[in-house]
Amino acid sequence: MAKRSVADAKGGLSAAEIEIVFRRLSQHMPGRTPTAKGPKDQPDPFRSLVSCLLSAQSRDTNTANATKALFALATTPEAMLDLPDDTIAAAIKPCGLYNMKTKNIRRLCAFLLDELDGVVPQTREGLMRLPGIGRKCADIVLSFTFGEDVIAVDTHVHRVANRIGLTTARSADETARQLEVRAPPWAHCDGHFWLIQFGKAICVSRRPKCETCFLNDHCRFFSATG
Ligand code: SF4
């Protein structure tokens, strides 16, 4: 099979096809359950934000180790700011980019305390005003911590959505904006879970299992390459 990039999957699916794709995903992939493990499975909004900051360019297991080590030292913005930089950096070292992430954690904590009395906003706009928090982290907090029906877009969701043709976007943020409009409303609650599991199990990055994929009759990537 010829190698194609995500951007080569040109032309999005019709609304009817998108409905079929999400229907099938809902039948084949696990959705949001009480035991569903999101990438930043944190019930506390402050911890969820910090976990998301730590997850940038880091594997899930490394993020989990860094998160665990950091929250063993401090669990509030005040307590976090009391920690020396070296202590934070040492705790989060497993997730890489630890000096930059240490600075970002400090900026986040200071902003929360100085501007918001330590209260994490519950809107996307409010969350995205926080230092270091982009659309992905904002949507993860909205979905995983505040329980909103939002399809958070990480690298797996971005890849899968654009291969299939659910979206035609070059950035994860644009994919998120398009999914918000194109995905049927009933799919917003579980869409992130279906797509991320599908991306890890079937539509994997290097060798997607197209021949046996239950979506290959509605996939732009497959019709272009298969
Ligand atoms: S056919 Fe399935 S596995 Fe292959 S690119 Fe499309 S969605 Fe991914």
UniProtKB/TrEMBL annotation:
Listed InterPro entries: DNA_glycosylase, Endonuclease3_FeS-loop_motif, Endouclease-III_FeS-bd_BS, HhH-GPD_domain, HhH_base_excis_C, HhH_motif
Which cofactors does the annotated protein need, by name?
Answer: [4Fe-4S] cluster
Q: Kindly give the PROSITE patterns that the UniProt entry links to this protein.
A: ENDONUCLEASE_III_1
Q: Which UniProt keywords apply?
A: 4Fe-4S, DNA damage, DNA repair, Endonuclease, Glycosidase, Hydrolase, Iron, Iron-sulfur, Metal-binding, Nuclease
Q: Which residues form the HhH-GPD domain?
A: 54-201
Q: What's the superkingdom here? A: Bacteria
| Gene Ontology molecular function | endonuclease activity
**UniProt keyword annotation of DNA repair present:** yes
Concerning PANTHER family, the annotation shows: A/G-SPECIFIC ADENINE GLYCOSYLASE/ENDONUCLEASE III, ENDONUCLEASE III
> In which family does this protein belong, per the annotation?
Belongs to the Nth/MutY family.
Q: What is this protein called?
A: Endonuclease III
